[in-house]
Amino acid sequence: MSRGGTSDSGGAFPEFLTHNPDPARMHLARRLALSFALVAPLPASAQALRNPGTATIEAHVVKAAPLDATPERIAGLTLPPGFRIAAFATDLGAPRVIAVAPDGALYVSDRDAGTVTRLDPTDGAKRQVVLKKPDVHGLAIHDGRLFFVTVKEIFSAPLRPDGSLGPEERLVADLPDAGQHPNRTIGFGPDGWLYASLGSTCNECEERNPENATVVRMKPDGTGREIVASGLRNTIGFDWQPGTKALYGWDDGVDWLGDDATPEEFNRIEPGKKYGWPYIFGAGIKNLYREVPKSSLEQWDKDSARPLLTWTAHASAMQFVFYDGGQFPADYKGDGFVTMHGSWNRNPPSGYEVLRVHFENGAPKSVTPFVSGFLTEGGPSGWQRFARPFGLAVAKDGSLYLGDDQNGVIYRISHAK
Q1: Which of 11, 41, 145, 192 lies at 20 to 30 Å from 125 by C-alpha?
Q2: Across 50-58, average pLDDT
Q3: How far apart are CA 187 and CA 185, in angstroms?
Q4: 109 membership: H or E segment, kind and range
Q5: Which of 15-29, 64-78, 264-278 has the least mean pLDDT?
Q6: Closest CA to 288 of 7, 2, 10, 22
Q7: How far is 391 from 394, CA to CA, in rounded Å?
Q8: Residue 284 and residue 118: Cα distance in Å, rounded?
């Protein structure tokens, strides 16, 4: 999967990729290398060509073979000293977003099954499906209600004392078309407004709907919707920093520009700012294929905010949370964690891990692996994996829940003081 959806060439790449964009349909031989020349300018529409130049791009498709999550493999995972990881719940299908209720219960979406399941915080085997809704994905809990989003709609329903849901209310029915990125995510900000990430419809293209490739916000009843920030290809994981209340998020870079381009971006998302896509990527990579309407690449570059930190291209960032618990060592307080779903468009593969974003004096300083070892060498492509990390949430006791949508496992990461 390409950042939670299918790949879209935007018209810039070989015809067989344009008509067969789903990596699952691509050849599963040991390694598929695609080499082609991209000569710029190539007109996106009938307009003057202002960016002469040439570029040669070599892209790879490497798909890691899926393995079972055996106790032996789990025991071989690498974490910092003092931390341990264990399966909390199994046989969950394809768990995606995790939200923790005030009573400690976990609410977990499964987009493929179209369900939300409640897990007892003391025993992951105690569970109940509380919602059936096609394509349900993002979750948020606010003022005693569960908010949930599908591709084009946002709903809420009251949480009953037994953890089930009361009658649902549809708040929004007109989110923009999703295209390549249907995995909407939502969250409540310190301002009490509901925020939603609306990914781009494509890999790189000129969107016609101004809400695509943005973060928007609205009142809890769905009214007053407005764009917060734009130029964000697909920011699935976002959260607010404790104390400063600043909004941060991980934006996924584009595919098909080579093994090391473009990087995954960690941004401070501020109102009114734009973040480069689809004309500027990473720390200033210019998209030579596109002509900026009524402007120029240079001007778009000047007007776009740079990422604060970056990570290996194609790793595919998913759920992001700030750690505000009390179980981990004091040095972790106020840091962030993000799941990396794993690449298909890179050789060697990237992702398949959990990263720590370390903050100092309120500012992000470094990104380092926190849980790794899900990806190993072997298998038909030369690589194999026993998890695709997605969900992430801080438990009421200060441990960390980690979801795997490949084998249907939710792990609990704890620290022994």
Answers
A1: 145
A2: 71
A3: 7
A4: strand 106-110
A5: 15-29
A6: 10
A7: 11
A8: 43
Burial class (CB in 10 A: 0-12, 13-18, 19+), 19: exposed
Q: Is the dihedral of CA 77, 71, 321, 274 positive or negative?
A: positive
Q: In this structure, are residues 347 and 337 in contact, taking their beta carbons and an 8 Å threshold?
A: no
Q: Which residues pair with 35 in a beta bridge?
A: 58
At 153, list the tokens: 């709609």
**Quick check: 312 and 224 in contact, CB under 8 A?**
no
CATH number where 122 lies: 2.120.10.30
Q: What is the pLDDT of residues 36-47, one digit of tens each?
A: 333 333 333 334
Nearest CA-CA partner of 150 in 94, 180, 209, 109 = 109
**pLDDT for residue 52 is more than 90:** no
Residue 233 lies in a domain: yes
The distance between the two most distant Cα atoms of the chain, rounded to a whole number of Å, is 65
- Domain-embedded: residue 101: yes
Token duo for residue 400: 């960390």
Report CA dihedral (200, 203, 204, 207) to the nearest 10 degrees.
-30
Does 6 fall in a domain?
A: no
Residue of 116, 86, 120 whose CA lies nearest to 104? 120
For 18, the enclosing helix (H) or strand (E) is helix 15-19
Q: Is residue 332 part of a domain?
A: yes
- Give the SS3 label for residue 75: helix
**CA 260 and chain centroid, separation:** 19
Q: Please say if the pLDDT value at position 49 is more than 60.
A: no
How many folded domains does the chain comprise? Answer: 1
- Helix or strand or coil: residue 66? strand
Report which residue type is found at 330. A
What is the pTM for the complete model shown? 0.89
Judged by DSSP in three states, 23 sits in: helix
Question: 308: which 2 tokens?
Answer: 């604060």
Domain range holding 254? 15-415
What token pair was written down for 58? 């070599």
- What's at 145, amino acid-wise? R
What stretch of H or E contains 364?
Answer: strand 363-371
Cβ atoms of residues 157 and 166 within 8 Å:
yes
* CB atoms near residue 75 (< 10 Å): 11
Element (H or E) spanning 172, and its range? strand 169-172
CA distance 96 to 403: 7
- Distance separating alpha carbons of residues 172 and 195, to the nearest angstrom: 12
Rounded to an integer, what distance in angstroms lies between the CA atom of residue 253 and that of residue 308? 14
Amino acid (1-letter code) at residue 386: F
